[in-house]
Specification:
Layout lengths: L5 E6 L3 E2 L8 E7 L2 E7 H5 L12 E7 L2 E7 L8 E3 L4 E3 L4 E2 L4 H9 L16
Parallel strand pairs: 4-6
Antiparallel strand pairs: 1-5, 2-3, 3-4, 5-6, 7-8, 8-9
């Protein structure tokens, strides 16, 4: 993910489930006095839900069109400078890097249909 979208790397507070939320939206949390939606990065990128979001999980706080969103992640390995040869993005060591487009994540979250996986509490989609 390009750094321009990331406002901060944070630790989530208590995550409250939202029963009628679409798959991919695993709950909401309070960060610095602001209620943020918490998205499941695994479900929205590769279609495989991660463990339920909980207090203490890591998150990238994204700023998209003036709206802050928490993207739950298992870990942040490193922040690197990368370049593109037109088709592939590589880091300074020559490793190919997949890029996550935040706009695409939100489109997947709001896509109609059954969704890419189970509902927010591990049950069937709403």
């Amino acid at each position: 993910m390009e750094l321009r979208w990331v406002r901060e790397v944070a630790t989530l507070g208590f995550v409250t489930l939202v029963p009628t939320a679409p798959p991919g939206l695993v709950g909401v949390c309070n960060l610095h006095g602001t209620i943020l939606p918490v998205l499941d990065a695994g479900l929205l990128t590769v279609g495989q839900a991660g463990a339920p979001a909980r207090q203490g999980d890591g998150a990238l706080i994204l700023q998209l069109d003036g709206v802050a969103t928490a993207l739950r992640v298992d870990q942040v390995d490193e922040v690197v400078s990368a370049h593109s040869d037109g088709e592939v993005v590589v880091d300074g060591r020559g490793r190919r890097l997949p890029l996550v487009d935040p706009d695409q994540l939100l489109r997947r979250l709001h896509a109609p249909g059954p969704g890419p996986g189970p509902g927010p509490a591990g049950g069937p989609p709403p």
